[in-house]
Amino acid sequence: MKSTAIVLAAGQGKRMNSKVQKQFLLIKGKPVLYYSLSCFQNSREIEEIIVVTGKDSINFCKQEIIEAYGFSKVKAVIAGGRERYDSVYAGLCACEDSDYVFIHDGARPFLTEDMIRRGKEAVLASGACVIGMPSKDTIKIADENGMVASTPSRSLVWNIQTPQIFSYTAIREAYERARQQNMADITDDAMVMERFGNMKIKLVEGSYENIKITTPEDILVAEKILEKIQKIY
Ligand SMILES: Nc1ccn([C@@H]2O[C@H](COP(=O)(O)OP(=O)(O)OP(=O)(O)O)[C@@H](O)[C@H]2O)c(=O)n1
Ligand SMILES: C[C@](O)(CO)[C@H](O)COP(=O)(O)O
Q: Which of 8, 83, 215 to mutate to test the pocket of ligand 1 (most atoms within 8 A of CB)?
């Protein structure tokens, strides 16, 4: 059985507001993208990696990250699209003979082997799962006027992370159907499966440290997390 990691690094990083795209910013001397690639490279559960990046960053990625750090499982570095879901679709189209895909934000450096293993177990059992954590905050649903409409029970609310892991055939089919429709409000792959697929999605525990680097203060938080986990990369 072949598992492929699709690592997304084609975003503009507008909310980061930096000259260098956030996936290439350095945390303790290494690019953000390095950390998740390193985890997939060292994982026994992953056979190959596809990196999706901006058209203008393909050579940089190949030379300065994949060759420089010896990420031998990377099979292809391809151009993404305008939206995250376009980049995911490009990654899915680049897969060959994959049984399972781990779709991961390159902007989330701190996934772990344990998460990958838990995700693999869940996808083998159910065909679709997402990594996430129970919400620590109370969540409110707003109405169109910015007023509180309702409060879901916090015990049922999760914050969703990546990787999001699927049977390849099931997520590819869901994406093919979705692309015939309006995808404008789609923010993750589970939504594609929920709306256009045929599998129930298992929630699998990730970690509160599995943050997405989004705004400038996240880099400071990431440095602290890295100091804390003292991971040898
Ligand atoms: N067209 C896109 C948009 C996003 N991503 C990737 O999807 C992940 C999550 O997206 P997000 O954090 O929103 O990144 P950006 O789109 O770069 O950020 P922003 O919305 O601030 O521009 C990131 O690893 C990003 O590189 C991508 O591959 N292709
Ligand atoms: C996929 C995701 O990371 C799950 O939390 C998130 O939805 C990506 O959203 P973004 O707006 O592309 O950062």
A: 8
The domain spanning residue 125 has which CATH number? 3.90.550.10
Instruction: Tell me the pTM.
Output: 0.97
pLDDT in tens, 120-152: 999 999 999 999 999 999 999 999 999 999 999
Q: Say if residue 182 is exposed, middle or buried (CB neighbours under 10 Å; 0-12, 13-18, 19+).
A: exposed
Q: What is the pLDDT of residue 117?
A: 98
Residue from 61, 92, 105 to probe ligand 1 pocket by mutation (most atoms less than 8 Å from CB)? 105
Backbone angles phi, psi at 125, to 5 degrees: -80, -35
In this structure, are residues 35 and 193 in contact, taking their beta carbons and an 8 Å threshold?
no
- Is the CB of 162 inside a 6 Å radius of any atom of ligand 2? yes
- With beta carbons less than 8 A apart as the criterion, state whether 116 and 103 touch: no
Atom number in ligand 2 closest to CA 84: 12
Identify the domain containing residue 102 by its residue range. 3-229
